[in-house]
């Protein structure tokens, strides 16, 4: 097989890094090989055993200046292979240039594009003023607790002296690149109702499922009011609180098609909640406490938010996108220099590892250069067109060049 940016992308995509058993050693050894051939220094750190992360460094001529970090994650969500046109780890390329693979958009494209851009800059004789770091982290798709969260609070991260970071973004259906200056914080809510068990034929108050269902209905109503605001055009999708049931459990399954004649004493539901930076977490928490899981209805709940190391239930920081942030205008001009246009900056509806870095006070933009591309993150038949992938390399060349050459802004030290 020939060795081109596209075939290197395909090789990276063919490594199965999907949960629940992501292979982390193979992608790291692939990336280390690439990085060494470019003369970058490589460092692997295992904060948690079996969950390594990789940091590549291109030394700048003034390594004292705050550095630029380009991040991507190694892992992917699973794929239902039988629902795909081409196997999800085949990286099959169609005649019209679509490369099908889990991770093609989220986010192995950027992981390879960073390296290809550095390769091209090097071959043109460019050398950076600031240090350029490229990180590849595990576990993003399951919260980043054993990956970026541990990295962000580590002495190793502090030593990198990161002044600005680019992390993943999302595809754009139109011809303007999307860029994200903030994101929603994920809360994982489990509610649990307890009640008296009883004969299936008996009518009584305060059963576990009855208590749970009251909450399920209230939550569904709240979900509807939030969704209505989007449908009415009053808020962007990522500016409202989303709450979706992702888990339900109660009772004993039917036997031989006949339901068990026993009312259960415990019933549970799990919700995926995404809270935008403009929502008040305390008000929302009160709602859960008083309306959705009140102890007077024999209910209890747990909320897992952000991670193991950070304070719970806080508000996420947004990166400023005005003149107070010099990185913003450098980034914007660098994209425009490639003939690209940026759409109005957005809050990301989902969640990335960027939140851990923003929490440190380091500005982060979420950006994946994919225009005229359907948004297929976590979907069947995820693909990226070869031409879009190749154009992305050029865009990163411009971005890396501009950001790493920035002389001012030493007050940006975190
Ligand atoms: C829940 S932490 C983030 C995991 C994943 N990136 C998502 O948005 O769902
Ligand atoms: Zn991602
Ligand atoms: Zn994802």
From TrEMBL:
Zn(2+) 1 binds at residues 73, 106, 168. Binds 2 Zn(2+) ions per subunit. It comes from Arabis alpina (Alpine rock-cress). Its cofactor is Zn(2+). GO terms for molecular function: aminoacylase activity; metal ion binding. Keywords: Metal-binding, Signal, Zinc. NCBIfam families: Ac-peptdase-euk. GO terms for cellular component: cytoplasm. Pfam families: Peptidase_M20 (PF01546). Zn(2+) 2 binds at residues 106, 141, 378. The lineage of its organism: Eukaryota, Viridiplantae, Streptophyta, Embryophyta, Tracheophyta. InterPro entries: Aminoacylase-1_M20A, N-acyl_aa_amidohydrolase, Peptidase_M20. This is Uncharacterized protein. The active site is at residues 75, 140. One of its GO terms (biological process) is amino acid metabolic process.
